[in-house]
Amino acid sequence: MSQNIMSGLGGQRVIVTAGAGGIGEATVRLLHAEGCRIALCDVSDEALGRIGSELPGITTLRADVSDEGDVARFFEAALSALGGLDALVNNAGIAGPTGGVEDISVADWRRCLDIGLTGQFLCARLAVPHIKAAGGGAIVNMSSSAGRHGYAYRTPYAAAKWGVVGFTQSLAKELGPSNIRVNAVLPGIVEGPRMDGVIRDRAERLDLSFDEMKAQYLQTVSLRRMVTPQDVAASIAFLMSDAGRNLSAMSFNVDGNVETL
């Protein structure tokens, strides 16, 4: 008898950060279709308004995950709407600056780590007591292929994403006895405007055309293709589902096998 590998998602109460665009939006749409109850935040009022009008029943709020006050206000509203919490998707992050280490400003370094790493801590510390109260659940933290490779000219981003892997491994050990599984998802080269911007910035740094730089990126991927936001969303949903009930402390690569960066 066949089994739905996404079983167990229906009715889950889920918080998704940066959920109104890119991977976050794809995740929200998939989880919504599977019957999850969702609260999401983002920093784009326009994107929040659009997804809120298209998906009935979700809760949306503007919040910057690097701001402790914003996170506290978002969680208060989200938990009030959801009535509890079963899962957290720590998706928010930024590309950060491209440049040599001597050229990157301290402010740009801090902003990249504040959003991509500290933001996950700020959300997890508020989510965990409620997931414990629910009897357990799942936390999925967004890392990157840059969380397992060195990444020249993108040191803040790589540092943040390596930090996410360490944060995930530590939380998995800490929270496992409370029946909370914690995993990191590591996307590679993801189709979309954010990746286009990364390629443009790196091409400029290396004095290459956009197409030349894109071709170089794809040469480092065994499958020679980008992944889509929907590919990443499916992996997140799998880790939250009954099929992922014994998966924890994983660094789940969704990248076509990125060999190097």
UniProtKB/TrEMBL annotation:
The keyword Oxidoreductase applies. CDD domains: SDR_c. InterPro entries: NAD(P)-bd_dom_sf, Sc_DH/Rdtase_CS, SDR_fam. It holds the Pfam family adh_short_C2. It comes from the Bacteria. Keywords: Oxidoreductase. Gene3D superfamilies: NAD(P)-binding Rossmann-like Domain. The keyword Repressor does not apply. Belongs to the short-chain dehydrogenases/reductases (SDR) family. This is NAD(P)-dependent dehydrogenase, short-chain alcohol dehydrogenase family.
